[in-house]
Write a structure and sequence with these properties.
The complex is a heterodimer of chains A (about 300) and B (about 450). In chain A, about 30% of the residues lie in helices and about 30% in strands. Chain A is an alpha/beta fold and about 300 residues long. Chain A folds into two domains: about 220 residues, P-loop containing nucleotide triphosphate hydrolases (Rossmann fold, 3-Layer(aba) Sandwich); about 60 residues, 2-Layer Sandwich (Alpha-Beta Plaits). Chain B has 17 helices and four strands. In chain B, about 65% of the residues lie in helices and about 5% in strands. Chain B is elongated. Chain B has about 450 residues and is mostly helical. Classes of the chains: A alpha/beta (about 300), B mainly alpha (about 450). At the A-B interface, helix 2 and helix 4 of A face helix 1 and helix 9 of B.
Chain lengths: ~300, ~450
């Protein structure tokens, strides 16, 4: 097991009689991209605000690198909030310097850190431009830099890809992967499941302030596997003959999704295909998407409003 | 503390570096002068309508002369009312003024009659009655055969010169006390008081609104989301207050150094025209230069150190007090400015009342209203400066100062609580009930 970057234990937060976060515990390891999932209003932002020390948990403890931090603002965390903005009238350079000085670095130290990121994201040329002169995508890049430039041990990214064009989206994705491989603890909070499936190794899923699912992504998917396979065939799968097969649907890619009875294995399916003489060009175990799993647990899609 | 300093520094520099700041700071004294001129003009404005009237004056009290300012032309005719009205129609007069026949100089009441299509306005009414009164007096003096010099000697010109310096007053001889300059002291003192109070009033208003706008902007732009994971909301608010407050103090410093320079300039200028005037045309000065020089020498007699320090102190007190309220309001506001306008109006009411009390305080600086208003913290930042040049007792200054500091600290703390919750609240209108809930939050 990797070293722990963040450990939260039994954290609870009440707002005016409404339980926003209800006894949540989880651990984020260094170098393991961690997904914090849940529909809007599930308690993700409330949880994050306690981790970053913006609010105090009513109950529970929060440890950063093994040190208890709840209620303190620490430069050990980099936070990219979901709703984010910058001072429009400030220049890029002034703004980044302002934020890094607020995090407790001297002008000289800060300059070095900011410079490094300016180089990496190729924003040197924008140094003297005002924020309001930048495109939306550029502003988001600056916001990302602002969140990570002080080299924090734990990075919390709340919906980091919203509003990004594909080019910048890829840039940020690569950056997240790189930071993770460097051994940073990273929490990716989102309600966009496809991003999580692509990036995260471990997840917790929150609904109504409670954790409803947790663990390694592939293990979760395996455990919710419903004996489904995807077949790419040159004709209708109706000709295949073996017991207990059901055709579910034809996917957008033209594959057939089939469900087999418990106990039927890959070998049985393939031999049936061979016997029928049908041409096979794709064969895959069809794992459920996170959204499917979420629907299974809560009866609702994750993108529906609560 | 370091964070507050960095925030304050940004708030300060981002404002002071603007061209707008320089323009406003240098332009304010000029604008201020203009403001007073305009107000003076409005109050001294009398009707610009001019009219021609026909006067019937059987006893010849007016001796065919009528020189009231709203009347351009007066023509005297005799005749019945009907005849006069006919002449009015034919020759196009605006009105007819009928003076009754007066047979004795002992008459105490006279009823003039004015006939016109237009209703008699206040201005013309006062104009005619005032003028007629003085002419009636002349007529009576003549009728009664009174010596005018004798009559004039009944009038005595009374002036008062005041001194708060009891020791010096005890030792001065009676002749010394008759000092031409000191009779204008209260006016100059009042002027200084009003100018300072007005400056504080405008600065508190403008800077308070500035704070409110800037808080709202941060909330709407969601900068605050990025900021609060780094600094505490209270630090953010304090930094902002200190930064913007320092902008005001900078302005005051600039004004305090500029004004003596301007006054010195005026002295030089008028000093020269006076000598020039003496060589040239001799008398007939357009402005009463002696009065002006008197005012200038009066100005030098005030305790400018006390006034300057008090100016800055009361500005800061008033600014912090009201701006933190404005800041809290800004945090409560949603994305649209109009929403809580009624609340911002409520906050401004005490400042507006204070400036009215200030005007009264200048006229009677030691009245109960003036004294207690200058101690009550919501009013004192504006009312006390009005009384400053009148040398208020030390205990009042101290009490007012201590109360202002204590109350301001309380309000800053209170606003901080509202601000803290408000800036992170979106999409929800914050009504008073909501705010009370926030105050109860840990």
């Amino acid at each position: 097991m990797n070293e722990s970057a963040l450990n939260i234990q039994g954290v609870t937060k009440k707002y005016e009689g409404h339980l926003a976060v209800d006894d949540i515990s989880f651990e984020v390891e260094k170098g393991v991209l961690f997904g914090l999932l849940g529909p809007n209003g599930a308690g993700k932002t409330s949880t994050i605000r306690m981790i970053t020390g913006i609010t105090l948990p009513d109950e529970g403890k929060i440890f950063l690198n093994g040190k208890r931090v709840d209620g303190s603002l620490t430069a050990g965390i980099g936070y990219l909030p979901e709703e984010r903005g910058l001072y429009k009238k400030m220049t890029v350079g002034d703004h980044l310097m302002y934020l890094i000085r607020l995090r407790g670095f001297s002008t000289k130290e800060g300059k070095k850190m900011v410079d490094e990121w300016a180089e990496r994201f190729e924003i040197r040329g924008w140094w003297k431009k005002k924020i309001e002169e930048l495109s939306k995508g550029m502003q988001q890049k600056i916001q990302f830099v602002a969140a990570v430039m002080h080299n924090p041990d734990l990075l919390i990214l709340d919906e980091p890809f919203t509003g990004l064009d594909p080019v910048n989206s890829n840039l940020i994705r690569d950056e997240i992967k790189r930071l993770s491989s460097e051994g940073k603890g990273i929490i990716l909070s989102t309600h966009r499941m496809e991003q999580v499936e692509e990036l995260c190794e471990k997840i917790v899923l929150i609904n109504h302030g409670k954790i409803v699912l947790r663990g390694r992504l592939n293990e979760i998917k395996e455990s919710y596997w419903d004996n489904e396979y995807l077949l790419g065939l040159d004709q209708e799968p109706g000709n295949l003959e073996f017991g207990g097969m059901e055709v579910r649907e034809k996917t957008a890619k033209g594959h057939w999704k089939i469900k087999v009875r418990e106990g039927v294995n890959t070998r049985d399916i393939l031999s049936a295909v061979l016997k029928s003489g049908v041409e096979l060009h794709h064969f895959e175990k069809s794992l459920p998407s996170l959204n499917d799993i979420f629907i299974k647990i809560t009866g609702k899609s994750i993108n529906e409003e609560q | 503390m370091r964070k507050i300093r960095i925030i304050a520094e940004r708030e300060y520099l981002s404002r002071v570096k603007k061209l707008q700041f320089i323009l406003i700071t240098l332009g304010a004294p000029i604008l201020f002068g203009l403001f007073f001129l305009v107000v003076g003009f409005i109050f001294s404005y009398s009707g610009d309508e001019k009219r021609t009237i026909l006067i019937s004056d059987p006893s010849n009290i007016l001796e065919e002369r009528f020189e009231a300012s709203t009347i351009t032309e007066a023509t005297f005719r005799q005749g019945t009312t009907a005849e006069l009205l006919k002449i009015k129609e034919e020759e196009g007069f605006d009105g007819v003024l009928l003076v009754p026949a007066v047979d004795s100089a002992m008459v105490r009441d006279i009823n003039l009659r004015y006939i016109s299509e237009q209703r008699l306005d206040i201005d013309t009414d006062l104009n005619i009655t005032g003028y007629f009164n003085s002419r009636m007096r002349e007529w009576k003096i003549k009728q009664l055969g009174i010596d005018e010099d004798l009559l004039a000697s009944l009038n005595t010109r009374v002036r008062i010169s005041s001194s708060t310096d009891l020791v010096a007053a005890a030792s001065e001889s009676e002749d010394d006390a008759v000092d031409e300059g000191s009779s204008i002291t209260p006016y100059v003192a009042g002027g200084i008081g009003l100018v300072i109070a007005m400056l504080i009033y405008f600065m508190v208003f403008i800077n308070g609104m500035m704070i409110m706008r800037s808080v709202m902007e941060e909330k709407v732009n969601r900068i605050v989301e990025i900021m609060i994971s780094t600094v505490r909301p209270f630090e953010l608010m304090l930094g902002k207050l200190i930064g913007v407050g320092a902008v005001g103090v900078t302005q005051i410093f600039i004004w305090l150094t500029l004004i003596p320079i301007i006054l010195f300039g005026i002295t030089l200028l008028f000093g020269e025209t006076m000598t020039a005037g003496a060589q040239g045309m001799g008398e007939a000065p357009q402005i009463d230069e002696a009065t002006l020089m008197g005012v200038l020498s009066e100005l030098a007699n005030f305790n400018w150190w006390v006034i300057s320090i008090a100016f800055i102190f009361y500005y800061l007190g008033g600014f912090l007090l009201y701006s933190s309220l404005f800041g809290a309001l800004g945090a409560m506001m949603g994305d649209d400015l109009g929403e809580n306008n009624s609340l911002s109006l409520i906050i401004t009411i005490p400042i507006v009342i204070a400036i009215y009390i200030g005007v009264v305080a200048v006229q009677s600086p030691n009245s109960t209203l003036a004294v207690w208003s200058s101690i009550f913290p919501l009013f004192s930042p504006i009312v006390m400066p009005c009384r400053l040049a009148f040398d208020p007792p030390l205990w009042q200054l101290l009490l007012s100062g201590v109360l202002l500091i204590a109350f301001t600290l309380f309000i800053v703390w209170f606003s901080g609580k509202i601000y803290r919750v408000g800036i992170l609240m979106y999409g929800k209108k914050a009504d008073l009930r909501e705010v009370i809930k926030w105050l109860r939050n840990k």
